[in-house]
Amino acid sequence: MSRGLWFAAGAGAGIYAMVRGRRAAEVLTYDGLHDRLGALAVGARLFRDEVAQGRAEAEDAVRARLGASSPPQISSPPDTPELAHRQQRGTP
């Protein structure tokens, strides 16, 4: 019985090592590395989106706590001097 147990243990260890070796070899191929880098890019993008969402939620919470309703609107400077002159006079 002991020999059969050791035979089964050895066969299982051999199969396990073979499967792990194939996986390691697949990771080191061009396609494997491409997949890993693609997954890293997707993970970084998801992390960036989660951080942005958390920041927006925290900003909303702070605004609610302070009683501010909306973020201040920043007006951009006019593109042309003529447009700036019209805006100063109040003509369209």
TrEMBL record:
**Stored Pfam families:** DUF6167
* Region: Disordered, residue numbers: 63-92
Protein name as catalogued: Unannotated protein
